[in-house]
Amino acid sequence: MTTRILPPEWAPQQATLLVWPRDGADWGNGLAAARDAIAALAAILCEYQPVLLAAADSECRDSIAAHSALAGLVALTVVEVPNDDIWARDTGPITVFDNEVRRFLDFRFDGWGGQFAATRDDAFTAAVLATGTLGDGALERHEFTLEGGSIEVNGAGALLTTERCLIKGRRNEDIDRDSAATLLRDALGVDTVHWLASGDLIGDDTDGHIDTLARFVATDTIAYQGCRDTDDAHYASLAAMAEELAALTNAEGLPYRLVELPLPSPIHDPDDGHRLPAGYANFLIANGCVVIPAFDDPADKAAHEIIAALFPDRDIRAVDSRALIRQHGGLHCAAMQIPAEHS
C-alpha cells in the first residue's frame, strides 16, 4: 500500500530554495531594494540551514557575488537556473514522500492564471532538479495548475486552500470542486480538503493564495489574517473568512485553535497609489527559526509577539518586506522548503 505525505513546513528541512531578482523583470527602480530583501532573508536562513539561490544569468551571479550581505555564507549555494520571477513558493518543487521516498512534484504553472509570462517558471522545478542540488528524489509532473502558495497542510491529513484560486477563478476552469479535491488527495496524500470561499487582501494578484490569509502552525492550530478596523475595506471579507475557519473541524471532529494576526496600516504603491497586499500571514518557517515580514508599522511588534508564542522553540527573525510587497509578494512567496530526506 502506498503511503504518501506532504510534510508540514515545520518538519525538518534540507534547504530553502530562493530566487535572485533579475534585471529586466518587473522590479524597475525597486530592483536594488528587492535584492537587499532577498539577501537579508538568505543571510538569516544560512544561520540555520543550507540555502539554494537560483540565478537567472551571469548578471545575477555577479550581483550575488558583489552583495555584502551574502559574503562568506558557507551555507549558500548559487545555481544558474532560468526564471521569469522570484516567487519560488509557486514555481519550485512541492516535495512529498511516497513510501518514505522523496518525489518532487512539478505542477503546471501558468503565471497566476495567465497574468504574467511563465514559460521559464513552468520549467523551473525540472531545471532546479537537473542541477543535482536537491539530492535524491524523482520528478513527478502534473498538468493540474497549482502554486505552492495556494495550499497549506498540517501533516495530519488536512489541506487548506481557497476556491477562488484553484477552481473558481482563472485556473482549472474545467474541474469542479470534487474533482479538484480528488486530485489534491491523490497527489499530496491528504485526507481532507478544507475550501475557503471568503478572504482576500486588496492588491493580491494570486486570486487568494492561502499563504497570505491562513496558515497551519501546528496540526490543530491555524494562524489567520484578521482585521479589527470596521472602516477598513478588508473587514467584511476577512471577518467572513474567520467564520469559515471557525466552522472547520479536524480529523477528530474538533474545531481548530484559531490565532488572529494583526493587519498593518495600508501600504500603497509609490507609483500609482494602489493598495498593496501587506499582511503578517506570509511568514516563513525554517529549521530553528520563523522569519516574519516587517513593514515599519506599529503592528510589527504585535505580530512578532503572537508568532513567537506560536513557535516557542524557534527564533523569530524579521525582514523588511516593503520592497517585496511592492511586487505583491512576500517572504513566504519567495521561498520553498526542501524537506529533509527520511533517515
TrEMBL record:
It comes from the Bacteria. InterPro entries: Peptidyl-Arg-deiminase_porph. SUPFAM superfamilies: Pentein. Keywords: Hydrolase. This is Peptidyl-arginine deiminase. The lineage of its organism: Bacteria, Pseudomonadati, Pseudomonadota, Gammaproteobacteria, Salinisphaerales.
